[in-house]
Queue: 4 jobs
Job 1
Amino acid sequence: QVQLVESGGGLVQPGGSLRLSCAASGITFSIYTMDWYRQAPGKQREWVAAITSRGSTNYADSVKGRFTISRDNDKNTGYLQMNSLKPEDTAVYSCKLRSARDYWGQGTQVTVSS
């Protein structure tokens, strides 16, 4: 069956960096657009970034210039490089593959705090 597994979250100080990974299995990863979303406690889920099968990218204004989305289709893995992290970036980050029925990972916690 299809599985998406995120990793790379953790605790980081403001100004620090993290790289999240989203490993896909059971699906032809390369043909799908991949999104990253995040959800902070008490807030609605927020779209963060997207990358198409051809590598075109798009970002939410809140992360533009600080986050970079990428993918390695040979490894069936997507990434979110997060730099200059702020406390307001604290959230559970999840990846999604867009298809007739969307596929979601379980999420990884990112906490930005001193």
Job 2
Amino acid sequence: QVQLVESGGGLVQPGGSLRLSCAASRNIFSMYTMTWYRQAPGKQRELVASITRSGSTNYADSVTGRFTISRDNTKNTLFLQMNSLEAEDTAVYYCHPRLTDYWGQGTQVTVSS
């Protein structure tokens, strides 16, 4: 059984920070590159960041320098540290193992004053 449970979202002021977590079942986490996606109201879901099993990372241009993706392979947990948040970062954030059909339920991030 595959489980992906995101947490850590919330309401934050512009310029603030949040750290998202995704607890994944071991059978998925150990096998795949893990990614964070986000979907804002009325927009398509977009890739935010990815991290391979060995720790190589990639970021969307819009978050480079502000967001950091990481993973703890001993705890099967994916993280997204988000700094200098902007209103445009408001979205539901999802973790997703690449090349699978599995998605978590998402966690809402709202950046507003």
Job 3
Amino acid sequence: QVQLVESGGGLVQAGGSLRLSCAASGRIFSNYAMGWFRQAPGMEREFVAAISWSGGSTYYANSVKGRFTISRDNRKNTVYLQMISLKPEDTAVYYCAGDRSFAGSAEAMGAPAHPVYWGQGTQVTVSS
């Protein structure tokens, strides 16, 4: 059974930074692409970033490009999201996602309704 556990959320002032972590278990971590999504109050869940199974390629939503960096450590079965220059509009629950497809691409995880496993989410609040 795949389990994804996020950590690292919190309250930060605009312009600040946070690093989210997602620890995965239940399958061979290095075989699957991983990603981050977010959902703000009253909004649909949206794609944020993804990384290929090897870590060799990444893919970002335009809204976070240049401010967020996704990375992974396959020895620790963990994926990270480093967020800098945070804005109030980044406030959301952030969800870790694990691709259901073997050796999928980062870009595929950004496709609408791409099948993934979900973590429980971690709250990020950016105050102005």
Job 4
Amino acid sequence: VQLVDSGGGLVQPGGSLRLSCAVSGFTHDYYAIGWFRQAPGKEREGLSCISNMPGDSFYSDSVKGRFTISKDTATNTVYLQMDSLIVEDTAVYYCAADRSGAVYCNERYSYLKPLDILKYDFWGQGTQVTVSS
């Protein structure tokens, strides 16, 4: 399994970026892809995830309403559209995959903590996002 994340860069506050995560190597259809970030000196934080179930997605409170996760099934690419960026969004962003099929990216199952990093088995290399004027 391989995940390649890209799309980071330098953007001004209020701007937008779209991150991409190209996924390959899964031998079964159901898996979840999550986006995480880690700022210097801070723990890795879960932001959003999406599964193969139609319409299933989940967001942390810190990005809800500003970030949008989506998937292109034809190319096995997951995107994170980030709008209204603020300085506090500066971090290295990672995509990750759950191979077990046990991560439910749906608000109804928020109590199962779909953004728990321990639930994800494969990780991309990370892409730097810097929000600065």
